[in-house]
């Protein structure tokens, strides 16, 4: 027993050392060099407390995996170094989401493309614009792909298939092609995938818009489920109503199980189980927030004090008259010269008091912003980073009237390098601040991304408004990451705690966390009164969105102990999984606005299933104790934290002690979590009636059917990847027998998920579910 624990302790100590080192003197409000991401970070997600996974479109990245430009990388948070990973299908502008067990899935993408964004050199038989595989870039058609990854850590074998992407559309794919689809989980962990292009373009319509449902086959007005469990995709009327500006629709699951869906300037509440739509008010001023207007949007922190009322905020984006939005090819306006919106609006789709639903104008952004994105912070504020003051997302070779664009292919200009913080707890008129925030010199425009890290800093990366790698464009393909340090990094002491659970439930018995005495200074009673427990899901980031991002304050009471420690009695989540869907999250203790490191936790059962719920947690009364004080360094920031930034202050050694404790606690917890996860996998495997094993392969997914178009000015330069190229298309070919023509490729394209289990569903958690690339050359791992 003792011997078995030694290795874990060793790991814990080394991890602690790294964490402590990183906590040294980060200047609040500053950006630090985050290293090189190897692939441009169009998409990112936090896999666990050590690794961020990064995905890019197929393009000419210098970094390779095997013989081909890499599309994927795993980024080590502590060392700020990334290593390439195998991804075989073109993950260009996919959607993505966590799964309840902590895995992540990405959905769809583009067809195979080659150099310059042109259609791949191998296309589907008889379909010259439907990219199947490119022999130079090595990417397969990703339009129907479902890719799944189990995040791994340093103690794991990264060369194992279990640490690699599962990316094999012959085994698992969507029912139809989706590029720029929405992805939103339901309360049971099922992911709903909505809409998208079949091939792409600037916006999802021809003009004039005579076929708003399908645009001749270029638009996908349907939704489907993953896992499908036999359910076939259905048409969603809202996708037709919002035709054109409906890609990457903005989706938020509400407590009733319905979803807020916002696209174009329309809004509905939608029941994904019955496909019923209820109209909600239009966006005021017809400001567009969905791609490519790309306004920042997020659900505000869920708070017990207002019974977890779900309010969604939209900021920025842009208004253009309908005819200026253009079509698949390009905008009909010179967007880079048009100011984005400064406006913010909130909506509470299911008000507690049953009052009428309406958009409410909130404080203006400090500056106009397209492609800003909200990051939920553990002090319950919302940070906005990235984007530009003018224009839109997307890229193009030209617009209707301008043949030579001033900023390369970028349709946005004037990068906004200064973050801004929104504090929903402040009175109207005082909610936005940029005080103390540095301005980054790196443009973060189209195809940039940002995500919260476990130490409560923010990783910012990407930007690439270019059809292929372009290092000399005014806004070049960007590989350099930055880490932004919010105001609370001015604190001399950051809280640390032990006792974090590896799982949380919906209702049920509360749990205790013990906050160390060196987490705070001054009166323990006061510190305890100003302590909150905050759960954050950082989400899956792309295109100025963090899909699935949520933050929730958990109820707590406390007991002040004689030794200065504070025991927090913390509620489980409220007994409604629709408020915070099952899956991975970070648990923070925030004292007077200063957060601890986040501890990794799985919310819910870990399975895609109706989540068990119990009665809401009942907390014991708080126990105060006079005369007890904390032993932490006195804070260099004001006790109210949050926006009261102390410009230029740095954290001190007090944080290091806290960091070590937190890291040891976190490693112990993660070790336990991993054990549980492995046990689950073994149990799941044991439950398989037939332990199937599947052939490894890298077959492409989708039936083709696509289009692309002649590049402006000439028929020669066909490309499927950029917005300046579109021709209405041939219909999808649903054949499942492609194999004959490309002997080196294991080709087939199932139209539906193959049944994999006794219940008829492919089971990505099955221990024999194949992962990527055991038959390919390996990267440094
Ligand atoms: Cu994109």
From TrEMBL:
Domain (Glyoxal oxidase N-terminal) spans 215-488
- The residue ranges flagged as biased composition, category Polar residues, are 770-781
Q: Which residue stretches does the UniProt record annotate as biased composition, category Low complexity?
A: 631-641
Q: Which InterPro entries match?
A: Gal_Oxase/kelch_b-propeller, Gal_Oxidase_central_sf, Glyoxal_oxidase_N, GO-like_E_set, Ig-like_fold, Ig_E-set
Keywords tagged on the record: Membrane, Signal, Transmembrane, Transmembrane helix
- The signal sequence is 1-21
Region (Disordered) residue ranges read 623-647, 701-724, 753-781
| Pfam families cross-referenced by the UniProt entry | Glyoxal_oxid_N, GO-like_E_set
Does the UniProt entry include the keyword RNA-binding?
no
Transmembrane stretches, start-end: 655-679
Where is the Galactose oxidase-like Early set domain positioned along the sequence?
Answer: 494-602
Protein name (Swiss-Prot/TrEMBL): Copper radical oxidase
């Amino acid at each position: 027993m003792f011997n078995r624990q030694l290795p874990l302790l060793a790991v814990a100590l080394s991890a602690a050392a790294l964490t402590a080192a990183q906590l040294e003197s980060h200047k609040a409000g500053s950006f630090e060099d985050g290293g090189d991401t190897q692939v441009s970070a169009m998409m990112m997600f936090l896999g666990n407390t050590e690794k961020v996974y990064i995905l890019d479109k197929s393009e000419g990245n210098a970094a390779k995996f095997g013989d081909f430009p890499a599309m994927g990388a795993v980024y080590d948070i502590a060392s700020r170094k990334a290593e390439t990973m195998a991804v075989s299908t073109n993950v260009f502008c996919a959607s993505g989401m966590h799964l309840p067990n902590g895995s992540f899935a990405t959905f769809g993408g583009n067809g195979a493309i080659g150099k310059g964004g042109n259609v791949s050199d191998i296309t589907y038989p008889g379909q010259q614009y439907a990219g199947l595989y490119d022999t130079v870039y090595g990417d397969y058609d990703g339009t129907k792909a479902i890719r799944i990854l189990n995040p791994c850590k340093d103690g794991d074998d990264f060369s194992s298939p279990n640490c690699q992407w599962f990316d094999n559309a012959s085994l698992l794919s969507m029912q139809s092609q989706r590029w720029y689809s929405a992805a939103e989980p339901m309360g049971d962990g099922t992911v709903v995938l909505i809409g998208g292009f079949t091939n792409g373009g600037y916006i999802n319509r021809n003009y004039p818009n005579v076929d708003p449902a399908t645009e001749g086959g270029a638009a996908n007005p349907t939704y489907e489920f993953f896992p499908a469990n036999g359910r076939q995709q259905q048409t969603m009327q809202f996708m037709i109503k919002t035709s054109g500006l409906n890609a990457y629709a903005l989706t938020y699951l509400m407590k009733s199980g319905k979803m807020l869906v916002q696209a174009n300037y329309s809004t509905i509440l939608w029941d994904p189980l019955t496909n019923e739509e209820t109209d909600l008010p239009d966006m005021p001023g017809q400001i567009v927030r969905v791609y490519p207007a790309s306004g920042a949007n997020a659900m505000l922190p869920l708070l017990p004090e207002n019974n977890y009322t779900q309010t969604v905020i939209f900021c920025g984006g842009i208004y253009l008259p309908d005819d200026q939005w253009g079509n698949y090819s390009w905008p009909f306006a010179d967007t880079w010269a048009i100011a984005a919106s400064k406006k913010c609006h909130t909506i509470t789709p299911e008000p507690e008091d049953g009052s009428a639903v309406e958009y409410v104008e909130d404080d203006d952004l400090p500056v106009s912003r397209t492609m800003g994105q909200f990051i939920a912070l553990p002090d319950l504020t919302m940070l906005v980073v990235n984007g530009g003051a003018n224009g839109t997302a997307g890229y193009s070779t030209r617009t209707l009237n301008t043949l030579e664009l001033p900023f390369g292919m970028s349709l946005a200009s004037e990068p906004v390098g200064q973050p801004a913080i929104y504090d929903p707890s402040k009175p109207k008129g005082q909610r936005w601040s940029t005080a103390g925030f540095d301005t980054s010199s790196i443009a973060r425009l189209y195809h940039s991304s940002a995500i919260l890290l476990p130490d409560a800093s923010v990783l910012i990366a990407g930007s690439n408004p270019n059809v292929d790698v372009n290092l000399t464009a005014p806004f070049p393909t960007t590989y350099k990451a930055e880490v932004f340090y919010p105001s609370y990094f001015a604190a001399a002491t950051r809280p640390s705690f032990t006792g974090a659970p590896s799982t949380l439930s919906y209702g049920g018995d509360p749990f205790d966390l013990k906050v160390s005495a060196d987490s705070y200074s001054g009166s323990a009673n006061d510190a305890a009164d100003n302590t909150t427990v905050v759960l954050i899901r950082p989400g899956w980031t792309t295109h100025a969105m963090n899909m699935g991002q949520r933050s929730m304050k958990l109820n707590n009471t406390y007991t002040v102990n004689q030794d200065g420690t504070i025991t927090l009695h913390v509620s489980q989540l409220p007994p409604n999984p629709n408020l915070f869907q099952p899956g991975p999250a970070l648990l923070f203790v925030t004292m007077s606005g200063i957060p601890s490191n986040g501890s990794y936790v799985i919310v819910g059962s870990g399975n895609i299933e109706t989540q068990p719920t119990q009665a809401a947690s009942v907390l014991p009364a708080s126990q105060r104790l006079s005369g007890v004080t904390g032993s932490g360094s006195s804070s260099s920031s004001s006790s109210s934290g949050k926006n009261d930034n102390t410009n230029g202050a740095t954290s001190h050694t007090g944080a290091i002690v806290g960091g070590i404790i937190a890291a040891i606690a976190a490693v112990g917890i993660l070790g336990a979590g991993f054990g549980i996860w492995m046990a689950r996998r073994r149990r799941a495997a044991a439950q398989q009636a037939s332990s199937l094993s599947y052939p490894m392969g890298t077959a492409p997914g989708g039936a083709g059917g696509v289009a692309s178009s002649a590049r402006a000015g000439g028929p020669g330069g066909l490309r499927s990847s950029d917005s300046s190229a579109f021709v209405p298309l041939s219909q999808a070919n649903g054949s499942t027998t492609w194999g004959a023509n490309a002997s080196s490729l294991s080709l087939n394209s199932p139209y539906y998920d193959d049944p994999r289990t006794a219940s008829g569903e492919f089971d990505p958690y099955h221990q024999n579910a194949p992962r990527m690339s055991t038959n390919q050359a390996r990267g440094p791992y």
